[in-house]
Design brief:
The chain is built from three helices and eight strands, in the order H-E-E-E-E-H-E-E-E-E-H. The protein is of the alpha/beta class and 199 residues long. The termini are far apart. 26% of the residues are buried.
């Protein structure tokens, strides 16, 4: 009987010794990005307030998401790879910093300022890595913006913006870099529309 117990203990110890260590969690952030140009004279006067960026529950989590081009309707989460904060909050911080540096408005508030003459609402639609055939991959960022004035209950316009960036490497750091570059391109498109003489 003692021999059986001893053999079981040896098997248990051998099994524990052969298990691989659990990977460490890794975290990524978005840095602020500068607009390609700064307007000398603001086009939106009276203040611009930027509401919280809205997103579905999955895009509001901190896990980095990915999909496969062969199954575009299925989203999955990476294990051990996280954003330092929820993507809608990170994107709003980058957006507010971008708008302040762009000079589109004479002032930009990152919280709800009821005295502001203008309001920009934002929704995060896509914020994920897309795996292509083989080892190729890219990221996709898609957002919907609505601009409204304080004296109107309807938006002046609502527009969707999408940007993609190929990955420069296979590490997750390359995904974070591509995500930031795609967001910068998307915000440049937004800035061009906000600076449009049609406003």
């Amino acid at each position: 009987m003692n021999r059986i117990v001893a053999n079981l203990l040896l098997l248990l110890v051998a099994g524990c010794a052969s298990t691989a260590p659990v990977p460490e969690d890794r975290f990524y952030r978005l840095d602020s990005v500068q607009p390609p140009a700064t307007l000398v004279h603001p086009l939106l006067t009276g203040g611009l307030t930027v509401g919280g960026v809205q997103a579905d529950p999955l895009h509001s989590g901190r896990a980095i998401l990915y999909s496969d081009r062969a199954r575009p309707l299925q989203l999955q989460r990476y294990h051990y790879e996280f954003w330092v904060d929820q993507p809608p909050r990170m994107v709003q911080q980058v957006l507010v910093s971008w708008l302040r540096a762009s000079g589109v408005a004479d002032s930009v508030a990152g919280s709800d300022d009821r005295a502001a003459a203008w309001r920009l609402s934002a929704q995060l639609l896509k914020f994920e890595e897309v795996r292509d055939k083989g080892d190729a991959a890219h990221v996709e960022v898609a957002m919907r913006f609505s601009l409204s004035s304080a004296d109107s209950s309807r938006p002046l316009w609502t527009r969707d913006y999408t940007q993609q960036r190929s990955l420069d490497g296979s590490q997750m750091y390359a995904t974070a870099q591509a995500m930031q570059a795609a967001l910068a391109d998307l915000l440049a498109d937004l800035q061009a529309d906000l600076a449009s003489p049609a406003l």
